[in-house]
Amino acid sequence: MGETKKDIKKLTLTDIIKNKEKYQVKDDVTEDLIIDRLGVSITIRKPERSLCLETIQMAHDPNQADKSNNFVVYNAVVEPNLKDKALQKEFGCVEPTDIVEKLFDPGEVDEIAKACFALSGYGNSVSKVKDLKN
User: Fold this and answer.
1) Which end of the chain is more exposed for a tag (fewer CB within 10 A), N or C?
2) CATH number reported for the structural domain that contains residue 88 in this entry
């Protein structure tokens, strides 16, 4: 939901320089997510821009659209390590990304993917300032 101009301070160059650490984009950001059905948490890492763009391209390709969320989840989940070959072998995965569907329900995959994109600033990280009307 947008804020009014009265509530929001305009960002200035002085603010950016004074609080450089606050405004600098961080790459190694992680977040824990709870998988309610399993009663456990997993850790995701902020996807790099290239991973986000590749996933978006997949989502727009009719031949790959159904694989795009699995792709970002496979690459962004760091705990547990979904890239572990023994884990993939144990679950009979043909493709490495198959492990995502073996461990998570489709709705869970979608929510994990949304959380991954949110860490990279996609979604609702920017809102519009609404002018006050008199």
Assistant:
1) C
2) 3.30.2220.30
